[in-house]
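We were asked to recover a plausible sequence for a given structure. The inputs and outputs are reproduced exactly as logged, with field labels preserved.

PROBLEM: sequence recovery
POSITIONS: 247
GIVEN STRUCTURE:
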């Protein structure tokens, strides 16, 4: 944090002392970005953009997390999982933004189209992460539970608890990807959002808007990850230990 503040201060000083008026039009100093933020906050535009993007990430990312976790369980379960894993592995290298033309064809220019992009992007991170988490549970742990007389349902609970640290890490990674993809989704078809704010900087020749949008995207991503990390620590402290973390 201190290094970031020091860099911003250096940027501000260098901009005021060294930047020409022409260069300042393309590379605004931090105080210009803050002034733009205050202006947009007063007219309500900034609040709407943040809430729109956060809502899309929450809903689209949430759908991707739930469906990805379910698919991960199926993939790790056995023969049916291998059948499902093959097409998913084939599609996984396809960038989420490559689906934008098809989703517009299927859903039109709509909120559903943007949510579909986010759900798909999150799904392709969470599904293999959850499958890998389930596969990495030591067989000896499950055998020990069985030998102690645990029912099949109880053994499944043991497996779920043992896999939880890596599952939570996969969810955090999926949400991080959703924040990356929301920009591309909003570029194409959204009337408002942080991606739109970034794009408007070019259209209106106001680069301070673009810098503001980028700063808010970084901040929102950091806040959501911090919240998920806090929940992860409360639910499964072992997931943040050196031996339990996969990050």
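RECOVERED SEQUENCE:
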């Amino acid at each position: 944090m201190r290094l970031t503040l020091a860099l911003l201060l250096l940027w501000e000083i260098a901009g005021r002392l060294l930047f020409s008026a022409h260069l300042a039009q393309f590379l605004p100093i931090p105080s210009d970005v803050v002034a733009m933020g205050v202006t947009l906050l007063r007219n309500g535009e900034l609040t709407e953009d943040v809430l729109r993007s956060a809502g899309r990430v929450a809903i689209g990312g949430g759908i991707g997390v739930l469906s990805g976790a379910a698919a991960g369980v199926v993939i790790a379960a056995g023969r049916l999982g291998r059948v499902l894993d093959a097409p998913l592995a084939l599609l996984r290298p396809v960038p989420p933004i490559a689906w934008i033309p098809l989703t517009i064809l299927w859903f039109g220019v709509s909120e559903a189209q943007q949510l579909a992009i986010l759900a798909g992007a999150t799904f392709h991170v969470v599904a293999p992460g959850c499958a890998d988490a389930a596969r990495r549970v030591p067989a000896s742990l499950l055998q020990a539970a069985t030998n102690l007389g645990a029912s099949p349902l109880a053994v499944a609970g043991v497996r779920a608890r043992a896999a939880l640290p890596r599952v939570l890490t996969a969810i955090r990674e999926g949400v991080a990807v959703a924040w990356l993809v929301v920009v591309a989704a909003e570029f194409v078809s959204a009337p408002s959002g942080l991606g739109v704010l970034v794009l408007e900087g070019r259209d209106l020749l106001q680069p301070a808007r673009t810098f503001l949008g980028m700063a808010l995207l970084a901040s929102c991503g950091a806040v959501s990850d911090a919240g998920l990390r806090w929940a992860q620590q409360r639910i499964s402290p072992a997931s943040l230990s050196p031996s339990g973390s996969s990050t």
